[in-house]
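Q: Convert this sequence to structure tokens.
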Amino acid sequence: MVAVLHSLEPGEVVTYGEVAAEAGFPGAARAVGRLLATSDEDLPWWRVVTSTGRLVPGHEATHADRLRAEGIEVVDGRVAPAGPAAPAAELPDVRRARQTRGR
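A:
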């Protein structure tokens, strides 16, 4: 999982489940969250969100600031849907592996 997290580039947003699946552990999204919460490594935790695009509870402001610095739009505590014509009320489609914006 650490290798997958280190491979994320600025502007990429993935879900906990996508990280787990790409690392060969489908269904282990919670393990990704635990790793990010407890690891002493410098992991890009801000590039990982829930399957609905929700930011880390209790750290929403920092999470949003880091994502915005990489060109990711955040609306109401969630990653905004991809695409210029997508309504803000729509749930984001972060289930697509390695969603990249602003490049």
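Residues 29-38 form the longest helix (10 residues).
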